[in-house]
Design brief:
Blueprint: H1 4-29, H2 32-63, H3 67-91, H4 97-119, H5 128-149, H6 156-215
Helix pairs in contact: 1-2, 3-4, 3-5, 4-6, 5-6
Length: about 220
């Protein structure tokens, strides 16, 4: 769940630490290229691991989650990204324009949910069913749909199955849209409170200005 920026900052810091360590050692003891290379690699690996541990620890403290929760949510995000990749591949394989648009929308919403949870892991608990059931079901259905839709022979039974699958995917798309709303629910509530507070402040400000105007 660490960001790309944290990845680069961690490795940049490790490189500078390793370079400084080797430079100081070279001046003090002249270890040679082989030992210097080993020292650089060892310092780089250990400092990277330590910095990553500190970044994760700080992230967990800010997010208010335990180490076990972090590992579980991280594994769910990894699985979700794989499922989203499969969805992306499937919507390029379907031959129906409506199905293409539907899968494209489903993929876009799923990516947003994953991004939200990655930024704030606590929101995982608002959308657990998205990770456990809704997204995996979407992948399974689209796999079967794309397989059937690409068959050269389409008898009545296949056509009926394709139609039912499209209807189920439509319902599932609506469900995933609801998941997105659930992921954003706390933000929406907070924004509404901020808007209400701002409106009340504006009303009080206007009343104060009117009161001062009446005094004059």
């Amino acid at each position: 769940m660490l960001s790309v920026g944290q990845f680069f900052s961690r490795h940049t810091a490790s490189f500078l630490i390793s370079l400084t360590t080797v430079s100081i050692t070279t001046i003090a003891a002249s270890p040679g290229y082989f030992l210097g290379g080993i020292l650089f690699a060892g310092t780089y690996a250990s400092s990277t691991a330590l910095l990553k541990y500190r970044q994760k620890k700080k992230f967990m403290q800010i997010a208010g989650i335990t180490k076990e929760e972090y590992k579980h949510i991280e594994s769910q995000l990894t699985a979700a990204n794989k499922n989203i990749q499969t969805l992306s591949q499937n919507y390029l394989r379907v031959r129906s324009v409506s199905a293409f648009k539907q899968l494209l929308e489903m993929t876009r919403i799923s990516k947003n949910i994953v991004k939200i949870v990655k930024t704030d892991p606590r929101k995982f608990y608002n959308v657990e069913q998205f990770f456990y059931a809704h997204l995996p079901s979407a992948v399974e259905l689209t796999d079967k749909y794309t397989m059937l839709s690409r068959q050269p022979v389409k008898d009545k039974e296949i056509q009926i199955t394709l139609s039912k699958t499209r209807e189920t995917l439509t319902d599932l798309n609506d469900t995933i849209q609801t998941d997105l709303k659930d992921a954003l629910s706390n933000d929406i509530d907070h924004l509404q409170m901020e808007i209400e507070f701002a409106n009340r402040s504006n009303i009080r400000r206007k009343e104060q200005l009117e009161w001062r105007g009446d005094d004059k």
